[in-house]
Batch of 3 targets.
Target 1
Amino acid sequence: MVDDETTRWFAGVDWGSERHHACLLDAAGKVVGERAYAHGGAGLAALCDWLASVAGDPGAVAVAIEVPHGPVVDALLDRGFAVYAINPKQLERLRDRFSVAGAKDDRRDARVAASGVRTDPQLFRPVRAGDPAIVELREWSRLAEELQGERVRLANRVRQQLWRYYPQLLELADDVAAEWVLALWEMAPTPAEATRLGEANVAELLRRHRVRRLDAEAALGVLRQPAIKVAAGVAGAAVLHLRSLVARLRLANEEFRRAERTLERLCAALTESASAAEGGNPGDAAILSSLPGVGTVTLAALLTEAAGPIARRDHAALRTLSGVAPVTKRSGKTCVVTMRYAAQDRLRQAVFHWARVAVQHDPKSRGRYEALRARGHSYGRALRGVADRLLGVACAMLRRRVLFDPDHGAAKAV
């Protein structure tokens, strides 16, 4: 919320890839000035200098912007300005107060943002400078997700090439991105070479990669099945393509493993440092990780994508941001409740996965899930109900600074 006692100036910034438009209003809503600055170190410094020269004290300026992150936000926070973010859809609704015809330009958007933060401060969220540890964790968390997507894309392309001439190899494993599958393909890239492959070599490969569900004899039996008859040159072309794909897939595997190790290290460091800072009491990371179903990936997503609501212990904001809270449309005698689609995608996926795992390991979550299913709710709706309960439990634990107790609320034995 904007501090009415200290804020005397209201600015709006419409950011762009090349130029940023700014508009400054006084307390009465009068336009003091409108400027445009090129994106870059000099341009952002000039923007901050102009606002500070007019207002005098950067802390007396409330700056409204659509996105809560990025170089513009970082530059403003570094200079001491109070920055507030707003959802782009809300800003679009505010634009109708200036032009019902739907007119839009960057200069007008900057003025709409400045006017909005002056008249409707409750719509804006304060932006705080991020903790460097959380910033690093967020980058590694997003990088791990990006690398996982890259692995899936490359694995699908590998599977398509093997389907052309070597489907036997696909029968050995569902995950063709596994290192042992790639190594086995390099040992025998064609069905013809599989017939000459030694059993001892395959056994050593399986032992080295700790593959126990399959032995060398069974693997060779699959690889030596009758091959597909293909036109001349097809197998050679597929092998040529696969060599490039395998090289890229191995690099993605290596980078993904590195990202996983780094995420584990950063989460552990956050848990220890937060606990030390709280005088021995568990920190946010330790409390969240104690909940059933919360692993490293989910913990990283919660700490980074929902840092603000978690710091405020804001259950309502967490429900909305993760897509757990439904959308109710009521008019007259009509009432429709639908799933919320306007949510943070990474947080939505993390909370959904959290609920899915909690149902498997936590009896109370399992009971909640089964009750919702018995009432006729779908699989997804039931998991969102479980996630809603878990978010409420998490906020209660964070307020009380306690770890999860699976026996909480159970009758004490006399």
Target 2
Amino acid sequence: MKRIFWVLAVAFLAACGNDNDAIPGLTGERYIDSVFSEINVKLNVKYGTNHSLAGIEKNLFLDVYWPENDTIDKRPTIVLAHGGAFVGGNKSDLKDLCTAYASMGYTVASIGYNLLDDRFLSDSVRFSEGVVIALGDMKGAIRYLRDNAINGNNDYGINSELMFAGGISAGAILANHVGMLSIDDPAIPEYLQTHMDNNGGFEGDTNDLTVSSEVSGVISFSGSLLRSLWIDANDPPIFMVHEELDPIVPCDYSASDRFPFPILAYGACALQDQIAESGIKNEFVFYEGVDTHVGYFTNDNKEAQKELIKATATFLAEIIN
């Protein structure tokens, strides 16, 4: 994972310019180009406490990145979750990606969340409860940052009305459910409803802040959604990237090869019809015939990687503007 994001950082930061409204004399289009060369970082900000799948109470932290010398004090904010199949990964894995987005004029947070720690994990129902706990963590992180902007000192320059969820692999699965799963959606399985009821309800157990966890858009790098029917016209815009033959998070409705029990979900390919029917703003970058997982970040085509991340930023900029 570290190599993935080092490549991203080089691709973006090599082209650093600046927003001509923020620092005179430098050029670039805010929210699309790298327009800031200096980034503030605040590590290990506690945003809540939650129990893990094994019942262990854990403090949860996030890292925040925002541009130095910015004249705008309320910035669109991207909340990102790392990958790792819900059993590994760390918020620091996203350091360079966060830096890249912050250099474009965003406030960006990389969150830590509860990973699966049940040694006796044996089926997809139990697995899904761990994902529900992690989903509550991501919602709690969004609420924490929004509350800081509305009711606190707005320490990180957040525009509380323009917050986005994003992630890679497992993190993208969380972001998709933050954006697309609503409390009144149809076809919520009974076992999933039970998980939510047992873990703080729809918003989760991570903190008791009452501000909203809704987002204005989603960035999904190789993610999936448990039910395609959850996508409707009330959902936020979504930008998706997926390889056609991804074996770990399948692009179609299929099971991952990562676990000894089937975990079925809808990847980006399988969500297209429902997205079209809903009419929500969307963009899909599709790697036809490719059988890797997030391989678009691990190959050596740095220019293509740069353009892919710029495309996500352009998508968000269209929402912002």
Target 3
Amino acid sequence: MIADPAVFVREQTRLSPVAFVPEIRLHQADEATALWHLTEATLDQADLPPPFWAFAWAGGQGLARYILDHPETVRGKRVLDFASGSGLVAIAAALAGASDVEAVDIDPFAVASIGLNAAANGVAVSARRVDLIGAALDNCDVLLAGDVFYDRGFAAVLLPWLQRLAAGGMTVIAGDPDRAYAPATGRRDLARYEVPVHPALEDATVKRVNVLQLGFCEAL
């Protein structure tokens, strides 16, 4: 059993700069499959999610780059990094001057990773293990989500919630590397990047990432 997820994260990763956002360092793994199998074997579980927390995924890299290059997006605002993984986007928001940053994920290893990575970058990020889909989020001004439209079922539940939040006045911005289930309408594209990625994680060494804001009709 893994008594302390933070110890496991430190032992199975190394602290290194993010390829497209070198201002930020993360605890990153070199290989995904071996780490996934090790986690399952150690916990004696065969249904664990992939170790999203151990890598800087394309959508998160693009979104973090955008936030650092456009700090006015989050400066002085309360920010939620949804499905945070490693905490990359949350850290970018904190560095860009957000007044309060919370990062949430359902994976306990992600929560541990977020804490370690925030400390490594000298920023304050509150990490919490929780599923917020459907919540009103009254204490949030900006919701950021990196690479969340990768699964049909998840996107079908997630997107209506994000759209409701945007319709209620919240700024909702996602980083998406042309995943199959990203919204085709009701969005405004803010930026596009060519992001280097780990070849073991993607079908290419570079992915095109769109940074998009939800809550816009086609006429806009």
